[in-house]
Amino acid sequence: MPRFDIAVVGLGAVGGAALLAGARAGAKIVGIDRFAPPHSFGSTHGETRIVRAAIGEGEAYTPFAQRSFELWDQLSAETGEKLVTRCGLLVLGGVLPHAMHVPAGFLETTIAAARSFGIAHDILNAAEVRTRFPAYKRFDGERAYFEPGAGYADPERVVAAQLKRAQALGADVRLNAVVTSVAKEGDTVIVHTAEETIRASHVVLAAGAWTPRFLPPDHARKLTITRQTLHWFAPPAGSADYEPARMPVFIWNDLYGFPVASPGGGVKVATESLHARADPDQVERDVKREDIEIVLPRVRAAFPSLGAHLRGATCLYTSTPDFNFWVGPHPEIAHVTVVSACSGHGFKHAAALGEAVIANAMSKSAVAIPKAWNLSAR
Ligand SMILES: Cc1cc2nc3c(=O)[nH]c(=O)nc-3n(C[C@H](O)[C@H](O)[C@H](O)COP(=O)(O)OP(=O)(O)OC[C@H]3O[C@@H](n4cnc5c(N)ncnc54)[C@H](O)[C@@H]3O)c2cc1C
After folding, report:
1. Closest residue by Cα to residue 119 from 93, 91, 163, 150
2. Model pLDDT, residue 97
3. For residue 345, which atom of ligand 1 is closest to its CA?
4. CB of 295 shorter than 6 A to ligand 1
5. CATH code, 3-377
6. Mean pLDDT in residue range 89-104
7. Which of 45, 135, 179, 320 has its CA 20 to 30 A from that of 338?
């Protein structure tokens, strides 16, 4: 039976980051995924993810976001891949806390985090927003937060680069291998796939929307898997207003979105759907007319110059009841860390989160994981 220091179950944004961190730290490590990441069945796909440093979901997240920027820069330099585009971020007034995963006071917490951590930012009035960033000509709120060092990451490229670099550093990878069980045996953990049985001293469980399958029912019930849809709209012909140089990523009422991220592409806009539970193996993967109808009136009101709906995609959130993370020990199996219930806002922290769970498993130092992120304790 192959024996490893660490086995990582799931190689999306979080598991891939853990695999890379383990390989960097010299661990004998294996990563296993039921598909061949990057793929479009989990939570880490769709061309862009907002990455920002001052975190309105709570100040405790900020060190993870900051460290993730450093780790992506390192990975970019090593692989030659452009992973992050720093086009800036606008939080346009008060975000709607009941419609989005964000808590009340999101704008105020964002500003407070920027001040406490010394993150470069400006507070703009509506006229300043409209003059500097014409795409937001409909913004008439009281104030906006602008973070110039923020922007978007390319999730597919990040996932691919993490795996490639981890393998170059000696990590083993098993793709298209479904982990069927994770169980304690003595002082180790046994991981079964259909093809093999692996023994590891520690397991990082980063299975995204499939995480509940590895949990006892009382914990599985606390996680809600929801289907989200993403939508790309045509920018006006001949206008540069929707290019990254002139359009920061944004969070505005119950919408968030991105400038045109690829030549000939569209402006990606989404809202969130937080309550209807989905099963990752049964979920409707196609974007339907009714999905478009939810977002369309909001897009037309906020961005009247945008044209046709070009395409859509679906994606999954794995959320806790209060939309904070769940990172902590498995409630029943010693030496297993549960890490990928990221409540729809995990990508920007994923690199540092992977590093932190590996550091804990190997008793090394990294950004400390807040105790409050352990769902078993709340
Ligand atoms: C539409 C959408 C928009 C988002 N926007 C943002 C954003 O702008 N900014 C931000 O910070 N965050 C954002 N997020 C959240 C962020 O993308 C996620 O928190 C993050 O990508 C989750 O990564 P993960 O590794 O936990 O999950 P995944 O990427 O889903 O990885 C889990 C992996 O586990 C594998 N797996 C599952 N079960 C098994 C098994 N039994 N055996 C082997 N492998 C298994 C899966 O195949 C998958 O590859 C968004 C999420 C969605 C869905």
Report:
1. 150
2. 76
3. 12
4. no
5. 3.50.50.60
6. 86
7. 45
